[in-house]
Amino acid sequence: MIKYVSKRIILAIVTIWAVATLTFFLMNMVPGGPFLSEKAISPQATAALEAKYGLDKPLMQRYFTYMADALHGDFGDSLKQRGRTVMSIIKMKFPVSARVGGISVLVALCLGIPLGCMAALKRGKFLDSLISVISTCGIAVPSFVVCTLLLYALGVNLKLLPTMGLTSWKHYIMPVIALAFYPTAYIMRLMRSSMLDVMGQDYMRTAKAKGVAGFWILFKHAMRNAILPVVTYVGPMLAYTVTGSFVVEKIFVIPGLGGEFVGAISGRDYTLIMGTTIFLATLIIIMNVVVDIVYKLVDPRIKLK
């Protein structure tokens, strides 16, 4: 177990380094510059700004300097938000995205797992067909369409919920629904297919033959094995929803990390783009490592090599 965990941590560190390296060089390959604006500035002013932020140095020198600073959690200063560091922006904006995303994860798990189980138990019946249609729609419909429908129906037409900001609990309802819709649908499909596979195993037929109640067969015998695919999906899902969907945050005017990332791209704020990309990639990689370890805890029969 210790050997496996150590190996996964080393691979995670190598992956984070690869992502950081690729992001750095891609940003420097993009044509144009961060100081271009509608109102042109003089070449002397541009050169002064590049010297201030170290953009006039050779590429490899900047790379090694950036990587050394990033190891200490320093992603540099924002090129557009003067006087603010990238890490300070992440610390301020990430909790907002994490709060909305965390609630969405709980909603997705609390709805997706039981609904998927019910669909498997009622296979071929009306409830199974209804849940299958809902899950298919949830996977096929883009998040911006869900946001638009929610805004029109609950915000503009019925005027039941506020349409922007996060100043009260009502402001969370529509963003959470929009963020949780896709993962809920995906978890429902995973649980249904996994439950159907587990319920056809020999030990399930033995439990039924012994007269074990259907409730205990479902939650004591089937659930532990059927939930493994969901555990696999929870890692990247958690990272995706906690960091916040860029589209959802933009539509509902949520002051989270997603909006900052979109603004950094449009403003060519290279340091903020690189810092947020490395941060989000690190979060996803850590979640995947945690999921691999949790696998062993959920099912001791799994051998970690």
Report on the structure:
The protein is mostly helical and 305 residues long. The chain is built from 13 helices and no strands. The mean pLDDT is 81. It is 75% helix and 0% strand.
Reconstruct the topology from this structure.
Elements (H helix, E strand, L loop, with lengths): L1 H28 L13 H10 L6 H13 L14 H36 L4 H15 L2 H15 L12 H30 L2 H8 L4 H13 L1 H16 L2 H6 L5 H11 L2 H29 L7
Helix pairs in contact: 1-13, 4-5, 4-7, 4-10, 5-7, 6-7, 7-9, 7-10, 8-9, 10-13, 12-13
Strand-residue fraction? Answer: under 5%
Give the helix tally.
13
Order of helix and strand elements from N to C terminus: HHHHHHHHHHHHH
Give the % helix.
Answer: over 70%
Main sheet record: none
In terms of structural class, how would the helical and strand content be classed?
A: mainly alpha
What general form does the structure show?
flat
Q: What is the terminal separation in angstroms?
A: 8 Å
Uncertain segments: none
Radius of gyration: 24 Å
Q: What's the number of extended β-strand segments?
A: 0
Mean pLDDT rating: 81
Key traits:
75% helix
Task: Write a short abstract of this structure.
The chain is mainly α and 305 residues long. The chain has 13 helices and no strands.
